[in-house]
Amino acid sequence: PARNTAHYPVQPNCELLPESGSKERVRYSVVIPVYNEQEVLATAYDRLKAVMDTLGEPYELIFVNDGSKDVSREILERLFATSQSVKVLNFSRNFGHQVAISAGMDYASGDAVIVIDADLQDPPELILKMVEAWRQGNDVVYAKRTVRQGDTRFKRWTAALFYRSLRILTDVDIPVDTGDFRLIDRKVCAVMKGLKEKSRFVRGLVSWVGFRQTAVEYVRDRRFAGETKYPLKRMLRLSSDAITSFSEKPLKMAMYVGAILALASIVALFGALCAPLFTGSGVSGLFALGAVVVFVNSILLIAVGILGQYVARIHDEARDRPLYILESQLGFEEESRHGGA
Ligand code: UDP
Ligand code: MG
User: Fold this and answer.
1) If you average pLDDT over residues 219-224, what whole number do you get?
2) Are 329 and 78 in contact, with CB atoms under 8 Å apart?
C-alpha cells in the first residue's frame, strides 16, 4: 500500500471522522506519546506489536513525537519504514503529554483507541483485558493501578495527594489512581475531539463525557529505561490544569476564607479598640491595625491569585491558537480526513 509523507505547516482542525476510504479498516489504534524515549522505543514497539498481533485484527500504532530532542524521531522513522502498522506524528516542538495524547486521538481511525505511555510502565499485555471489557459493551476502559512500583516515594505520595484532592475539589467523577492508560471507544473519541479547551487534562475530560466506563486493575511497573519527563514543575502544572478545568471550588474557597478572615479582622479590630477600656494598659491599636491590614491584603492577594488562574485560562481560550503544530506526519493519508489545511 502507498505510504506517504505529508507536510502540514499547521495542524488542520480536528473534526469528526467521516468513514475512512482505506481498504483495510483499522480496528484498534494505539496512541503512544513520546518525549525523549530513545532507550525504550524499540522494546515498546516489540511488546506492543506482540500484543496487538494476538488480537488478529488490523491495528495502527500512532507514535506522537512530542518534540523529542534525542534520536527518538530517527528511531520512529526507522520503525515506520519497516512496519506496516506504525504511523508517526512529529510535533514542531514540545507541546506536552496531554496535547500529544489529544493529537494521537485526533488522528486515530480505529474503533477502539488505546492510549499508553512509551516507557512500558503500563504493561501492554493489559490491552487484551481492556479489549475484552470493551467487547462486553464498555465505552471507556481505564487502567487503575493498585501498586506503583519503581516510582519514588515522593512521586507516589504527591500522586496520591493529587488524586485525592482532585476528588474532593471537583464534581466530575474522576477515578483515583488512574493515569492516561485506557481504551476509548470511537464514539467517545469523536466527542472528545469536539472539546477544544487548551489546558487539557485528558483523563478528566474522558470522565466528564460520560458513557459506560469501567476499570481494569494492574500493577504499575518501573520505567523500562530513561527517566521521568514529569519533574515537579510539570506535575504542579498538570494538577493546576486539572483543578482549574474541573472545579470552581478554589474560587468559592477564596470567597469563604475571605469572608471568615474579614469577620475575624473586624472582631480583632473591635477587641483592639475596646481592650484599653478594661485593662487600662497602653494602646496596642497600631499593632492590631497593622495585623488587620496585613490580613486583609493577604486575602486579597490569595483571591486575586486564584482569579488570575481563571482569567489566564479565559485568555488562553480566547486566543484560540491551534492545540499543536505538526511538522510532519508519516503513514496518514495525504488528503487527511481532518479536513486538510
Ligand atoms: N511525554 C510526552 N511529552 C512530555 C512529557 C512526557 O509525550 O512533555 C510522554 C512520555 O514520553 C511518556 C509519557 O508521556 O510516554 C509519560 O511520561 P513519563 O513516563 O515521563 O511520566 P511518569 O510516568 O513519570 O508520570
Ligand atoms: Mg512513565
Assistant:
1) 74
2) no
The Cα–Cα gap between 83 and 46 comes to 11
What confidence tens digit (pLDDT) does each residue in 120-144 have?
888 898 999 999 999 998 999 988 8
C-alpha cell at 1: 500500500
CA distance 133 to 113: 13
CB 68 within 8 Å of CB 36: yes
Q: State how far the Cα of 58 lies from the Cα of 56, in Å rounded to an integer.
A: 7
Q: What is the pLDDT of residues 242-270, one digit of tens each?
A: 777 777 677 667 667 777 777 777 777 77
- Which of 203, 199, 38 lies closest to 118 in space, CA to CA? 38
ipTM at complex level: 0.94
d(CA 226, CA 38) in angstroms, rounded, equals: 8
Any ligand 1 atom below 6 A from CB of 230? yes
- For residues 58 and 110, give the distance between their C-alpha atoms in angstroms, rounded to a whole number: 9
CA separation (Å) from 315 to 41, 134, 197, 198, 236? 37, 38, 11, 11, 20
- Give the whole-angstrom CA distance, residue 279 versus residue 282: 9
CB of 158 within 6 A of ligand 1: the answer is no
Report every protein residue that has its C-beta within 5 angstroms of ion ligand 2: 117, 119, 121
User: Cβ–Cβ contacts within 10 Å for residue 129, how many?
Assistant: 16
